[in-house]
Amino acid sequence: MAQSVITPVSVVQHAHYKFVIFDAPNDANLHVYLQEILKEKVCHVVRVCDSTYETDSLQERGIEVHDWPFPDGDPPPDSIIVRWLTLVKNTFDADKKAAASAGRSIGIHCVAGLGRAPVLVAIALIEKGMDPLDAVQTIRGRRRGAINAKQLSFLESIQAKVEEGLLHPVGTERLDAVSLSPRTGSLWPDAAGGPEGAPPQNS
Q1: Catalytic residue selected from 23, 49, 78, 110
Q2: Strands of 17-22's sheet, edge to edge?
Q3: 131 catalytic per annotation
Q4: Would the N or C end of the chain have less CB density within 10 A of its end CB?
Q5: Count of alpha carbons within 13 Å of 103, Cβ hemisphere only?
Q6: What are phi and psi of 180, to 5 degrees?
Q7: Is 95 marked active-site?
Q8: What global pTM score does this model have?
Q9: Cβ–Cβ < 8 Å for 183, 77
Q10: What are the phi and psi torsion angles at 68 (to 5°)?
Q11: Count of other CB atoms within 10 angstroms of residue 45
């Protein structure tokens, strides 16, 4: 029997920016996730983990799927951050009034929806001027258990790069031109892992 019970999706909204965080569907329960994300007017789905389902049903409903995976426990490479911020810019900032009135949103998921996906949403909020701790608290208020201590340290370290314009979104025509080649250096701080020095949680 096909699985029909899913972990609820989490909606994170700031001004006219709206993100829907969820865990990874599979082909058996994708139809349930699809119902939920359609309610939130998701127009893009970003997968930052390995694929676990076919995307035909999403594409048939006009949802564009972006596969930008990176390893669990790692920070997102600069190339993925730039692509992500560019997608956010193109979706919400090209016409702010239209984006707000349409209520459209970007869906994003990793395996559990607690690590990699929330980190990218936090980066978007930071890029829009939110303090890293406020961004994390905003996300945790919608998705309990999201972002561990090590990931918070990374978000604090990346704020300077965003403020210096080192991770600036590119234009619409440049989205597919951003290289996804492996990064040459880690952005991850040398701090301990999660609470009590535990390793990063699965995401």
Answers
A1: 110
A2: 10-14, 17-22, 105-109, 42-47, 64-67
A3: no
A4: N
A5: 6
A6: -110, 25
A7: no
A8: 0.82
A9: yes
A10: -125, 60
A11: 23
